[in-house]
Amino acid sequence: MVTSTDNGLPPSRLFRSFWQAGFESATHRNRKRRRVDMIAATQHLEHADADYALLRDMDILVAREGVRWPLVEAGGEYDFSSLAPLVEAGRRHGIQIMWTLCHYGWPDDLDVFAPAFVDRFARYCGAVARFIAAGDAGVPFYSPMNEISFLAFAAGQVGWFYPYAHDRGDELKAQLVRAAIAGIEALWAVDPRARIAHVDPIINVVAASRRPGQTASATAQHASQFAAWDWLAGRARPELGG
Length: 242
Known about the structure:
Layout: E1 21-22, H1 38-42, H2 48-57, E2 62-66, H3 69-72, E3 73-74, E4 77-78, H4 84-93, E5 96-102, H5 115-134, E6 141-145, H6 148-157, H7 169-190, E7 195-196, H8 215-224, H9 227-233
Parallel strand pairs: 1-2, 2-5, 5-6, 6-7
Antiparallel strand pairs: 3-4
């Protein structure tokens, strides 16, 4: 006998369809110090019903979406008007959504390197979980901190994104891991059913064939792609709480 989960799926299946869609939701400040809002730029919020209907036509029943933290929170107060249309449209069309809670951007008054960042992110995650649970959309999926290794590189190592730091990549990566772990605990405190996914780019770095002296550095850079996952799991840097 096959029993179902709260998602209405057999326990061996996590997702409603093999293929998954993704809607760009970055909200960082770019190298020109301009706030990016890709959901606004693509008008996805206004066309969520049509977007999800197209997914159903292609038998795609899973989508990654972003909760825009800079829009949702202001000084510890939460306004989910920028999220509600996506929650409602997903429920209407039967789309299983994985919610990204920080896609490179955070409220303007926050210093990402400060201890307060971790606490604020955890409280925000709890608030989002309560809002999502109230919508009764089944077992929720969350990706707390999008692409930790890339964000640490872009914002902490080479200064592409806010706060435009240089040579602080590992420091920022550790802070993002702390925040992600605190956020997960906050999500589970509100909704123990919540499932978590961590997303980072996969890369392949090899030394040039005519430059064998680069082998060690290429190997180290290749291995670094797994650092955030290892830190989150406590396989390395266990002092971060993984």
